[in-house]
Write a structure and sequence with these properties.
Layout (H helix, E strand, L loop, with lengths): L11 E3 L23 E6 L3 H14 L4 E6 L17 E2 L5 E4 L15 E4 L12 H7 L8 H8 L5 E6 L17 H12 L6 E6 L12 E4 L3 H8 L4 E3 L4 H10 L3 E4 L20 E2 L1
Parallel strand pairs: 1-9, 2-3, 2-6, 3-4, 5-6, 7-8, 7-10, 8-9, 10-11, 11-12
Helix pairs in contact: 1-6, 3-5, 5-6
Length: 282
């Protein structure tokens, strides 16, 4: 782990600590009896998608015996870094039921002994367990010294700003695509007109990426789950077209949130329910 001696406002780069070993929470044994009155919710994709899937599963837990199915082969399952309360179980061999669309479905198809597969990217699915989620989506392990020092700098004028690059510049560019810098320029202007002395904490999946923005900023590099925790300590937010920073803003319960109007580059997918109405879309 790298310990930086001095942390200050301005154009500071905070180093990424070493990653601790992954610990999976409540993993069911291969010979565990699954019972009859239960369902599984599939988890896949990156951390943001996994949290949406967990939140949907958690919303069903008052009524169903819910377990999580781990299909996170690409990025690995990261839910064990949080205080989740649902177990991760082996594949039960049940029938798969797919989410109908990206729009909020007030009556999703659910039946006993089935696997629900989807992204469930709308807060209306899990408002019934909002308080529980805000408690559970906290670090299970102590955060690093670096993360603690970042959080200490985040006062009333703090703004998280997330720039997704990485896969959005390569294999995911066609469907998602990195947002143009013009979006961030307009978003920064929107925030600075409303938050006096705004200071922007820049998070990105590209190490040491410094956006060409004229504003007071600190560039932050932590582990993904610590990035999310640090985002949640900011008072305001500018998110990317990414479920990861969506959760950063939601967990922060940020006062001013700016989100992109177009979630997908292709424009042929109905994403109208992803962004809460109280957030500003640019």
């Amino acid at each position: 782990m790298v310990h930086q001696k001095a942390f200050h406002r301005g154009r500071t780069v905070l180093q990424r600590p070493c990653e601790p070993p992954m610990v999976t929470r409540n993993v069911a044994q291969s010979d565990q009896q699954l019972g009859t009155q239960m369902i599984s919710v599939n988890t896949c994709g990156g951390l943001g998608n996994q949290i949406f899937q967990y939140a949907f599963a958690r919303s069903l837990s008052p009524k169903y015996d819910v377990k999580l199915l781990n299909s996170c082969t690409q990025y690995g399952n990261s839910l064990g870094y949080f205080n989740i309360t649902l177990p991760i179980a082996p594949h039960p061999g049940w029938r798969w039921i797919a989410e109908r669309s990206l729009r909020f479905d007030p009556n999703p198809e659910i039946e006993d002994n089935s696997i629900l597969a989807g992204y469930w990217q709308c807060e209306r699915y899990f408002l019934n367990v909002e308080a529980e989620l805000r408690k559970e989506l906290t670090p299970r392990f102590p955060v690093s010294y670096t993360a603690e020092k970042v959080a200490e700098q985040m006062g009333d004028c703090s703004v998280m700003l997330h720039i997704r690059r990485g896969d959005y510049l390569t294999w995911a560019a066609a469907r998602h695509g990195a947002l143009p810098m013009d979006y961030y320029m307009r978003a920064v202007k929107h925030i600075t007109e409303r938050v006096e002395g705004a200071h922007f904490f820049v998070f990105s999946d590209e190490d040491n990426y410094r956006p060409p923005l004229r504003c007071s900023m600190t560039v932050v590099h932590l582990l993904p789950h610590e990035d999310l925790w640090a985002m949640s300590k900011c008072r305001h937010a500018i998110i990317a077209n990414s479920s990861f920073s969506w959760w950063g803003a939601w967990l922060a319960n940020a006062k001013h949130v700016v989100a992109p109007k177009q979630w997908f580059r292709t424009g042929n997918e109905d994403s109208a329910d992803i962004i809460p109405k109280r957030w500003t879309q640019i």
